[in-house]
Design a protein that fits this description.
By secondary structure, the protein is mostly helical. It has three domains: 109 residues, no CATH class; 119 residues, no CATH class; 348 residues, 3'5'-cyclic nucleotide phosphodiesterase, catalytic domain (Catalytic domain of cyclic nucleotide phosphodiesterase 4b2b, Orthogonal Bundle), CATH 1.10.1300. The protein contains 23 helices and six strands. Strands 2-3-4-5 form a four-stranded antiparallel sheet. Strands 1-6 form a two-stranded antiparallel ribbon. Helix 6 runs antiparallel to helix 7 and helix 20 packs antiparallel against helix 22. It is elongated. Bound molecules: adenosine monophosphate and zinc ion (ZN). Adenosine monophosphate binds next to helix 21 and helix 22.
């Protein structure tokens, strides 16, 4: 079913998967060239102008968005012009066997208002300063782009006046206070980075940014604006600027993704299926077909790459490939109908949906994202196709090893970390000691929390936390709840997917029932193939387990992401949803932040289908019973 290593890649081509937009390099280049005027109406596609610095080392791109120009500097791998990294890095890892990793950096170095001043002359002229009044009574609100410009101008003016000794203490104080308030209103993390960088706007010269970056810029910003529904004459809101700045985090991650992707080849069919990776009801079965039975390897690689983990944690691509192949093999060890590599891929994709479509990725650190993705990938590693209850009741070695507590979950984690100890599969080899410890703790917590016996406690704890006036949600607890929900999310997917999963799980349960019968053990629930009410069990599972879980998870996400959203819109495609009219874009100020919940409709549809099925099943049972109870028809009498 699953082939390992290079053999699988024969006849394939290098695949770089875009974010689902389908906008090609060529299209973007065309867009840039066909829009020489530079300006654009709000709500239209962003405009990029590509530049190369005089040295040829770092490449720059000016992206015009919402009336602002963003200078994005892309540095080549290890290039002299590489933008400054956030923290000192350990020495680079040894070159992987199949090539040297191409790793660069990408930084938004400057934002400037293209509506208010010329791109090439951001510093106010003496003339402009001479015209300035220091009156502080009629200044724009501090959280507007206008305020930024006004504050900057004032600071320049104050400096000049201080030099000349021509300023009163009161005027100085009032203006400094205003400038301080403007700065406080700016989203701290990202603007700090902007402020640290030099003004490089005037140095830029036309040339290219890497095509992959263009692809990303086009796909992400175009899609974003297509859903923004902003009126063309509306002034850009500060929030949208903060959002764009914040998206710089994603720019970094995606840039890293693209450079690393060069090292693993994706069959064309896999690339095609992965284009829908961001969808809630992603067809993981189609991926299985396209990937010749190895969906986890491609999906795992794509996700870790897409979030920039390969670059960030210096995971040698060949090591990652070996790790994922071995993990995939472990999932196939017992030929389980349900707990196999496909289920792992499904859960990992659903986790990805939660990370990127709700904006959760913006609340988590890189290490937390890395741990969450790896936890999803390994969460049922070497599953035996039997339940914890079966392990305990049959006194398996694993139950003995883990003293009947979270038997399978302990095994999944332990076996996965044992694999990571193997040099060939050590994806954590370039983590610092502290990073490794934190990563390990997070993965252990998350996978242990997939033990269904912890389900009600987990929900209860989160629910009561969320009733507090100012809840502080622990990152590990949040990620654990997300993983748990994704693990049981198939009843919340499109019917065809859910139905297929349910049939596979029941097959697995019935196989366990067969073993229980052989061993003289009582049947575990849902494991007796002759006595299981399938439709009813699914209705119960949806109503009592899945719906409440998704409900608490959504409440938690809205609680933790709300504050993030109020300072900047988060999530690549996130918009607040009006509470009173689902689907309608909410008025930002009047409506509580809401995430999209595609699962709500699916759950309701699926429940309805199961209810119809249950009614039919009940009818059929009644009929069969009636037939069984009715006296046998009299035998025909012989004449
Ligand atoms: P895991 O074993 O880690 O995949 O955890 C998910 C658990 O949820 C499964 O083992 C089942 O116990 C339960 N589950 C998932 N889908 C269904 C379903 N359709 N019906 C009943 N139980 C389910
Ligand atoms: Zn699972």
């Amino acid at each position: 079913m699953m082939r390992r290593g290079k053999a699988l890649l024969e006849g394939s081509r290098q695949g770089s998967v875009d974010g689902g937009s389908g906008v090609s390099d060529k299209e973007l280049v065309h867009k840039c060239h066909s829009d020489p005027g530079g300006g654009r109406a709000l709500g239209a596609a962003p405009r990029t102008v590509r530049h190369r610095s005089a040295s040829g080392a770092a490449r720059k791109c000016v992206l015009t968005l919402d009336g602002y120009s963003y200078v994005i500097v892309a540095s080549p791998p290890g290039g002299a012009g590489a933008p400054r990294e956030e923290a000192p890095r350990p020495p680079p890892p040894p070159a992987p066997r199949n090539g040297t990793p191409k790793q660069g950096g990408l930084t938004i170095v400057r934002r400037s208002s293209s509506r208010h001043k010329s791109e090439s002359c951001p510093t106010p002229t003496d003339e402009q300063l001479d015209q300035l009044s220091l009156d502080t009574d009629h200044l724009p609100a501090v959280d507007t782009p206008d305020a930024c410009d006004k504050a900057a101008l004032r600071l320049r003016y104050l400096l000049r006046q201080l030099n000349r000794g021509e300023i009163s203490a009161e005027t100085l104080q009032k203006n400094l206070q205003y400038a301080a308030r403007v700065l406080e209103a700016v989203y701290i993390d990202e603007t700090k980075r902007l402020a640290d960088e030099d003004d490089e706007l005037s140095e830029v010269q036309p040339d290219a940014v890497p095509p992959e970056v263009r692809e990303w810029l086009a796909s992400t910003f175009t899609r974003q604006l297509a859903t923004a529904k902003r009126k063309s004459d509306e002034k850009p809101k500060f929030r949208s600027v903060a959002h764009a700045i914040r998206a710089g985090i994603f720019v970094d991650r995606i840039y890293r993704r693209v450079t690393s992707t060069a090292l693993m080849q994706f069959p064309q069919d896999v690339v095609r299926v992965l284009k829908t990776l961001d969808e809630w009801s992603f067809d993981v079965f189609a991926l299985f077909e396209a990937a010749a039975g190895a969906p986890l390897k491609y999906l795992g690689y794509e996700l870790l790459n897409r979030y920039g983990m390969i670059h960030k944690f210096k995971v040698p691509p060949t090591i990652l490939e070996s790790f994922l192949s071995r993990i995939e093999e472990g999932y196939c060890k017992f030929n389980n109908p349900y707990h196999n590599n496909l289920h792992a891929a499904d859960v990992a994709q659903t986790v990805h949906y939660m990370l990127c479509q709700t904006g959760l990725m913006n609340w988590l650190s890189d290490l937390e994202i890395f741990a969450t993705l790896v936890a999803a990938v390994i969460h049922d590693f070497e599953h035996t196709g039997t339940t914890n209850n079966f392990h305990v009741m049959s006194g398996s070695d694993t139950a003995l090893l883990y003293n009947d507590r979270a038997v399978l979950e302990n095994h999944h984690i332990s076996a996965a970390f044992r694999l990571i100890k193997d040099e060939e599969c050590n994806i954590l080899q370039n983590l610092s000691r502290d990073e490794f410890r934190e990563f390990r703790t997070l993965v252990i917590d998350m996978v242990l929390a997939t033990d269904m016996s912890f389900h009600f406690q987990q929900l209860k704890n989160m629910r009561s936390l969320l009733t507090l006036a100012e809840p502080t949600v622990d990152k590990s607890k949040a990620a654990s709840l997300v993983l748990h929900c994704c693990d049981i999310s198939h009843p919340a997917k499109r019917w065809d997917l859910h139905h297929r999963w349910t049939m596979s799980l029941l097959d697995e349960f019935f196989l366990q029932g067969d073993k229980e019968r052989e061993l003289g053990l009582p049947f575990s629930p849902l494991c007796d193939r002759n006595n299981t009410l399938v439709a009813e069990s699914q209705i119960g599972f949806i109503e009592f387990i899945v719906e409440p879980s998704m409900g608490v998870c959504a409440d938690m996400l809205e609680c933790i992401l709300g504050p993030l959203h109020s300072s900047s819109k988060t999530g690549a495609s996130q918009e607040p949803i009006s509470e009173d009219a689902p689907g309608k874009i909410a008025n930002e100020t009047s409506t509580k932040f809401k995430i999209r919940k595609p699962w709500v409709a699916c759950l309701s549809d699926n429940k309805k289908i199961w209810k119809e099925q249950a009614a039919k099943d009940a009818e059929a049972r009644a009929k069969a019973e009636e037939e069984a109870n009715s006296p046998p028809a009299p035998a025909p009498t012989e004449e």
